[in-house]
Amino acid sequence: MRCVGGVLGRQPCGAGRFTTANRESFAAAEDLVAHLPSPTAGAVLNAARQAHDSGFTTMAVIATADLIVTAVNAAVLLRPRTAGDHVAGD
After folding, report:
1. Is 79 exposed, middle or buried (0-12, 13-18, 19+ CB in 10 A)?
2. Smallest Cα–Cα separation from 35: which of 9, 61, 59, 7?
3. I need a surface site. Which of 15, 40, 60, 88 has the fewest CB within 10 A?
4. Quick count: other Cβ atoms within 10 Å of Cβ 45?
């Protein structure tokens, strides 16, 4: 593909090397915006922040749910036995 008017396909010329890294980290997005015009840079950085926040929130919810399930399992499985408890195989 040829670079025409500063744009190669749908991305600025020279930005191709950043696109894979941009999908992988917020720091790479900051590196990418250094090479973009101001309005585009703001939009890309805003999208990267939103994606990072969304992913972080999702992982926090999953980790919290996992912690609650683990705590309940620990409380149930590690409770002390009383004399009347019967365990199969005893």
Report:
1. exposed
2. 7
3. 88
4. 16
